[in-house]
């Protein structure tokens, strides 16, 4: 089933770890910002997503897009193990 990140996923994670949805969103955003500070990571994310240049332009990607790309990478990695 389709899950909405702010209405479904953040609250589930927050409940599981005794936190708030706001804290979950902020931690994911912080993780993404740290990851994206390294230009090699940006290139890797572009390569994983197949959207070359999407992460290297000046606009930031959303938490949802970041999580979707990372989840897809893990899925592909797991299938190729």
Short structural description:
With 81 residues, this protein is mainly alpha-helical. The chain is built from 4 helices and no strands.
Q: Tally the helices.
A: 4
Order of helices and strands: HHHH
Number of strands: 0
Inertia-based shape: globular
Biggest sheet layout: none
Q: Report the uncertain regions.
A: none
Mean pLDDT: 83
Distance between the termini: 26 Å
* Alpha-beta classification: mainly alpha
Question: Which value, in Å, is the CA radius of gyration?
Answer: 14 Å
| Percentage of residues in DSSP E strands | under 5%
Helicity range of the residues? over 70%
List keywords for this structure.
4 helices, 81 residues, mainly alpha
Q: What would you say this structure looks like, in words?
A:
The protein is an all-alpha fold. It has four helices and no strands. Helix 1 crosses helix 2. The longest helix is centred in the C-terminal third of the chain and has 17 residues, at 63-79.
Which secondary structure elements does this structure contain, and how are they paired or packed?
Elements: H1 5-17, H2 21-36, H3 39-49, H4 63-79
Helix pairs in contact: 1-2
């Amino acid at each position: 089933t389709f899950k909405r990140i702010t209405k479904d996923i953040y609250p589930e994670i927050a409940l599981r770890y005794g936190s708030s949805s706001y804290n979950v969103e902020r931690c994911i955003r912080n993780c993404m910002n740290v990851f994206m500070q390294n230009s090699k990571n940006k290139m890797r994310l572009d390569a994983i997503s197949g959207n070359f240049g999407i992460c290297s332009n000046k606009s930031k990607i959303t938490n949802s897009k970041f999580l979707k790309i990372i989840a897809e990478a893990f899925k592909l990695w797991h299938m190729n193990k």
